[in-house]
Amino acid sequence: MTTELHVLDGLVSHTTTDGIPTLYAPTSANEITAGLFFRVGRADETLATAGITHLVEHLALHRLGLSDLHYNGATANAYTLFHVTGSEEEVVTYLNSVCAALRDLPMDRLETEKEILRTEAAGRGGGPGHQLPLWRYGARGYGLSSYNELGTWSLTPDQVRHWAETRFTRDNAVLWITSEHVPEGLDLALPQGTRLPAPAATSALPVTPAYIHGDDGHVVLTSVVRRSPAAAVFADVVGRALFQDLRQEGGYSYSAEADYTPRDADYATLTAYADSLPQKQDAVVGGFIDTLARLRAGRIEQSELDSVRAKLLKAYDVPDLGAASLPSYALSLLLGHRILSPEQRRAELNAVTVADLHEVAQEAWATALVQVPGRGVDWAGLTLAPQYSQDSVTGTRHQSLEDEKVTLVIGTEGVSLLTPRGPVTVRYDATAAMTARPDGARSLTGHDGFSVTIEPTLYKSVTPERISAVDAATPPAAVVPMPAREPDRIPQPRKRASTPADRPLKSTWAWTLALWTVGLLTAFWGLLCAVITADEASAANPEWDAVVGVWIMWLPLAAVTVALYRARGRRRRS
User: What are the φ and ψ backbone dihedral angles of 488, each rounded to 5 degrees?
Assistant: First the structure.
């Protein structure tokens, strides 16, 4: 057990249980609560195996079945938590059951739990800012929380079992219990392993502050800031300032708030949010950015700081402070963050100054990614996040059957989709995942978050041989086999609108019909006139004159028709 826990002596006790670091503190409640943390989460996965940690969590809880016991599991970016509230006997039963299942997962439930997770995801929804992680981090690490759990389609029993054996170990866990002692009868034997550090952060943003376009009615900001008491205070100051400016004074928003969430041992994510009606969203965007600009300029009142500080200090004036602090201390121990006593935390909060908040405000803006509805916000000094790749690959070109201005390129290094506004490229050696359908469809997602979908039915000459070339070049670990689609679910080309080159072809028939109609009517009129005047003495041979007149009219008509069709032939070849 680390020596830094000694700062908690007299408040929180510590020991080990079957090799697992254990924190415990007494509670006045009638029941006790326990939590078992593991340092593994979604950010440890790949896009192709996304959901494997969540799957282990579900399998570990299956044998508990229906129960009146209050228990659950949770999978976050950097940790997994099993928690329970009940009598001492119930808590022991729960923790023993979880660890027994982790040692021997019920693989007969694997396919069923996969389907349950897919159903859970379908009904969960993403929330207003669910796309921000992938834009900041790409399709790996902390960006995976923006994606569906692709692994639920293809993970094998061996993969899931190996994940549990190497991540859910006693050396990668921390146990906490709200009790004055560690209950008797615990059997938490787990494989030996190593404490895994939180994943290193990746980046898909070449420059910050940046912005992306999002749904109407929502403005969301995320920033990455160093973990500190000043940053925690600043998040609350931001929330109060937005509420004051956008709701109480402007009347533009109903919800205006901010949040501070630790990401790893050293950094936290600051999130700010405001909603709006569509007709008010420009005013909300402007007010939102103006509020942040005021804070960044250092215009923070001492009263704002004092109000937030008083609120945060109240958290240390609660009964059973040690028990209430256990989850926070256990998570800090798990992630490797420094552990401070309540007295040290109070002292740090009391030491925060307006100048400290000004410094955090500048740091938050420097790393900001803002999601805005409607028009861009370049005027505020933010840069639009990359919408297209910087380059494209060379290879066979396959024109879209829906839009002649779009071309798919399948090369030896990757695939590109060429559009009038720019290319989207995924290179094979930087592929996070490729879903593969039996009908030949492939969807490749790069580490940077860009995706290219190959639908053989939507592009010219995408043969099985070209699909095989993509399969052979993609790393096997990135391939996610998907089930067959019903025939009516396979996309077919939409009917294209006529192009300028097409319209003259159609008009040729109209011109031809019109010319020949006029010609026939003229000829008929000439013959009729000839018959009427046949008995006049001045017309020595009127029938012959009429025939000659008709030919004289029809010869130019035939020449015009031939010219029209020759022009049509030239347009077709071009």
Answer: -75, -5
The two counts, helices (H) then strands (E), for the chain are 14, 20
Residue 536 has pLDDT above 80, yes or no: no
Return the structure tokens found at 39: 């340092």
**Residues 468-472: contacts with CB under 8 Å, at least 24 apart:** 469/410, 469/412, 470/410, 470/415, 470/434, 470/442, 470/444, 471/436, 471/442
pLDDT, tens digit, 9 for 90 and up, residues 4-38 = 788 888 899 999 999 999 999 999 999 999 999 99
Examine residue 183 and say whether the peptide bond preceding it is cis (omega within 30 degrees of 0). no
- For the entire predicted model, the pTM comes to 0.85
Pairing mode of beta strands 218-226, 267-275: antiparallel
Query: 391: exposed, middle or buried (C-beta count within 10 Å: 0-12, 13-18, 19+)?
Result: exposed
Contact in structure between 222 and 366 (CB atoms under 8 Å): no
| Sequence-separated (6 or more) residues with CB below 8 Å from residue 401 | 457, 458, 459, 460, 493, 496
Cα distance between residue 570 and residue 553, in whole Å: 27
**What are the CA-CA distances from residue 527 to residues 135, 514, 515 (Å)?**
79, 20, 19
Q: What is the pLDDT of residues 364-398, one digit of tens each?
A: 999 999 999 989 999 999 999 999 999 999 999 99
- Judged by DSSP in three states, 415 sits in strand
> Greatest CA span in the chain, whole angstroms?
139
Integer Cα distance of 505 and 460 in angstroms: 23
Looking at residues 207-229, what average pLDDT do you find?
97
- Residue 302 to residue 355: CA distance in whole angstroms: 10
Kindly report the three-state secondary structure assignment for every residue of 163-214.
HHHHHCCHHHEEEEECCCCCCCCCCCCCCCCCCCCCCCCCCCCCCCCEEEEC
- For helices 354-366 and 281-296, the axis angle rounded to 10 degrees is 130
Residue 203, token pair as written in the block: 């980046």
Residue indicated by tokens 């050293």 = 266
Q: Give every CB contact of residue 40 below 8 A, 6+ residues apart in sequence.
A: 53, 79, 80, 167, 168, 172, 196
